[in-house]
Amino acid sequence: MRNEQSLYFDGFVVDDHGNIRIPVLKEINVLGYTIDEVRQMIEKRLLEEYFTEAANLFVVVKLSGFRYTINGEVGAPGTKMLFQERVSVMEAIANAGDITITGDRKSVVLIRQMPQGTEMHTLDLTTREVMQSPYFYLQPNDYLYVKPLPQKTLGTGTTAMASLTSIITVLSLLGTITLLLTR
Questions:
Q1: What would the pLDDT profile of 31-42 be if each residue is shown by its tens digit?
Q2: Are 97 and 74 in contact (CB under 8 A)?
Q3: Would you tell me how many other CB atoms lie within 10 Å of the CB of residue 15?
Q4: Model pTM?
Q5: If I label 61, which of 31, 100, 142, 160 is the partner at 20 to 30 A Cα–Cα?
């Protein structure tokens, strides 16, 4: 019996033109079809050309891996690959080392390439409604960007206490310089 992960490595590759080359079926164009539609297409071709209607066919069609890119305020930014068919925004972020302390969980941008152009959607991960969003689950080659919190943008610190400490340090330095120059 084969394990789940071996199915991702022992399959057929879709070329740049959307074609799969299967030895007995030759070339099948799958561009624009869903995984289930491709499975049905292969089963139909096998039944028409090699088997009878009574044959009990079992065809498995899976993505070879789920690729996405994540940047911004995460632990390990970069292009990632997961060997599963469905990946949520939460799983993608967890796989990238979670959002850092300076990351804005209310402003995660999803960039998706569509045939009609690029779509950008901002997700607020602090609400339950995000799980009902049509953008909660990623599509292959999606790009996620976790924006920094405003205090990081200003460069004053990662938390309110760090910002306050930075301001007090600058004021103390200015006071010390003023006292040294006036005496």
A1: 877 788 888 998
A2: yes
A3: 12
A4: 0.65
A5: 142
